[in-house]
Specification:
Length: 199
């Protein structure tokens, strides 16, 4: 139980590290919260500081979800029938940390890359298929939020197709809802034709 609680706390704190803000400061760029879309995610970093900044931010955000979830898969196995539920809660804590980070007054990113990292750990085939969906959507539209919205809508379906875990399916549903809520302004801008392009 102590291992589980420790991993939940670790996942939240690790997930809350504002990768985009750290990268911007290290590269001498502007605070991403005050420029572009105002988001600290990889798409805005790519837009503001170029491919390298976007890649580093993406990598960091993915690792924030993947690392604690992989640790949970290995260390929580002794919980038996409760192991999948415990792993799902650890993964969910990482996503919540990214979206509501204690370091930034609980105002964080939109959770897409960190959620991808979690899914790479628990349902890798679902993550891979959603990555293809994202890349195709962005390639056709040049708008990152379109790919994110498609993936959020399809996440529970993808997890249901590639896993029989009810815990992971519930996690997918919760994450999907959070990502869609965090993208409500993007959706409004898309409807108005005002959404920012990646390129």
């Amino acid at each position: 139980m102590y291992t589980f609680l420790g991993l939940v706390v670790l996942a939240y704190l690790l997930g809350g590290i504002p990768t985009g803000l750290v990268v911007a400061r290290r590269l001498g760029g502007a605070d991403p919260r005050q420029a572009g879309s105002g988001n600290i995610g990889a798409a805005n970093m790519f837009r503001l500081l170029g491919r390298w900044a976007g890649f580093l931010t993406l990598l960091g955000d993915v690792f924030k979800g993947a690392v604690p979830t992989f640790l949970a898969l290995f260390w929580l196995h002794p919980l038996g029938a409760w192991a999948e539920a415990a792993v799902a809660m650890v993964g969910g804590a990482a996503v919540l940390g990214h979206i509501f980070p204690v370091y930034l007054g609980f105002k964080g990113g939109k959770g897409v890359a960190t959620s991808f990292g979690v899914m790479v750990a628990v349902v890798p085939w679902a993550a891979l298929n959603l990555l293809v969906v994202y890349l195709l959507a962005v390639y056709r539209t040049r708008v990152s939020s379109v790919g994110s919205l498609f993936c959020a809508w399809l996440l529970p379906l993808a997890v249901g197709l590639f896993s029989d875990s009810k815990a992971y399916l519930l996690l997918a549903g919760v994450i999907s809802g959070l990502i869609l809520l965090r993208h409500r302004e993007n959706l409004e801008r898309l409807v108005k034709g005002e959404e920012l392009s990646m390129f």
